[in-house]
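Protocol step 4 of 6: structure prediction from sequence.
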Amino acid sequence: MRYALLCAALAMMTQMGQIDEGWDEADEPAADEEQPSYSYGSIGTRHIDTLPKTEYPRAKDERLWSEPELGEDEFRLALHPKDTFRAGSESLQRLCVVEVQGPVQHPDRLSLVLTDADGREAWRESISWVSFNPRMRPYWLPVCRGTVSLRLYGGDGDAKATCAADLADGAPEAILEVVVPDEPLAVDEGYALLPAWESLVRQGETVRVRCALPLDSDGRLIVTGQAGGRQVLRDALTVADDKRALTWAIDSRAWSRGTHELSLRATLNGKVVATRTHEIHVVQGASPPERFGARYCSLRHTGPVYINYAETMPWDVVWRGKRKRDVVVDFPGRPYRFVLWRGCSYVACWAFPNTWVTYEWLEAEPDFYGAVGCVEPLHDKWCEHMDLRILSSTPARAVVHWRYALTDLHCKIIRDEWADEYFYLYPDAIGTRKLVGRIDPAAWHETQECIFINRPGNRPWQAVEPQAISFLSTAGHRARPVWPAPRFTVRDWPDYIVTVNVRGQPAPFMALPGEGAYVKVWAPPYVDKPGLFNSYLHWPISHGIRTTWVDSVEQYQRPTHSNLVNVVNPAMEQADDHCVWQWLIGIAPRESRLIEVAACWLRPGTVEVESGRVEFEGYDQSQRAYVLAASRSARHCRLRLLPEPGNPIINPAFIIKGWAGPAEARAEEAREIAVGREDGGATLVVWLRGRFEESVTVEVGR
């Protein structure tokens, strides 16, 4: 996706040798076999799928490069501190990547031990991920002054390898954090991607302040807070062994609605060690939307908009005079929304409190055919070549259409290529994404990539877990790669179910057939990068910036995004001038139910018409629905839904075209029934909530 960076990656990988990527021990090794090659014709010279920026899943016991043989009991150990810190439960912590290599027979007998400069144990962890290939895992280690030692111990108690680092080098003297335990969804209050230095608080709810110091700090600590011209926090205490991470609660009942600036300061032994200014938006606390459905709205961003690499403008100034609407699909009682927002160039995202997640868009070959930079809808920053419409919003489902052109850095349409994306979403937060590309099918195009967005001021670790992606199949396969060096096996799976493991929130997922599909991982971030994931500056919100890697923690003050993996599947339909793709998408239920949801989308069974003037036309995978056609005189019909043996149907939907007049639906086994009308009343949609292992009767009548 990023041509200039790929060339740099190729040069670096040539110098460094190929990087092994770590494994989840639960993965089953697959037989060695030659990796398949994939051709996209002769358009351009990018060869995106053969550059070492991607890594295809292989067997975990496969040697990938020539390494000197280790001795019978020889290990290698390295510690890579990142410039990322947080307030841990006991002290100030630093994000570090530990790298280990060794001839391990019983990895569960190994442990890592960190000792401070005086030889006292500060941290310990048992590990089971070591192999003869170098592997990496992230850990939050306590910050101690001076040089610390990290040792790898075997089950016999002997140190197998040792390395040293100064975790206090570049570390802050303390960290102050502001946490709102029950923060409202910003989207519900008209905000999008609030910066990390802003929070929403319902009137009367609690704001928490946390302060963390290095593990060996001592002395007199004073923490104060001011808001609205008055003191809201003051505490003084002596820092002891068990008091190097502390939390205070601030009551917001006396705060009026509006924006309040909370100023915090921490002093240790008379020296200021941390300050923080945080904006608190006090909202009335109105209930979130009570009904499922899609709505138009106008979401604003309170942070600055970068109009190039250095200059900024306010959001309202950037969008002044441009009549563009956003779309939000609400799911009552759920901690997420489905959002198509101008600041993301209408790219469809699942919006959570701390991150947004997308399945990507249609993208074409960069820097060819007169294009400057990448060719994708992200560069249409004012949505000039886009159309966004709610096609339907009923109690049974919401349908949203997004049309866009493939443009370059200067918003020039390249080769007159366009795309139409249709999102069919049901009340269970599961639906489909259908992509119709008006393109040259012989040219290189990308259609899917798991990407998450970092709020300005947030780091990727605050959005997703290091074990950021989970792979499942309906046949029971599992793979769980761990960053910053993901590696896993997914060969010969019948299908793929991919979840993005959002920190502390439900997981967005995607499912697709396995035939002709393949998986590739973006190159692991080099250890000198600031985070565990590759992150980029040019999207969302920012204007006029080429595809650019985040190289320093200061750049995380801007809105950024991070990418994970591609799961590439062939088009379900292809002609001379277009291609069509489809995916099952949504928010994942528990794992066993998720497998059933994917299985009944891939193998939906059938419908028999027992009575009534309707005809079953088949299952439309792109709508996740059984489609029927009714005659004009149809007044009643009785349908029997027949699952495949051993393959229950979860929350089915029925589309009855041509149904005239009012209608009610009945199904005794259903826990909930929703009915809606589309196409000006010409189409009836019936959705059932329930799990149906055996045949179920559905009646529709006036």
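Step 5 (inspection) to follow. Helices lie at 3-16, 315-318, 591-602.
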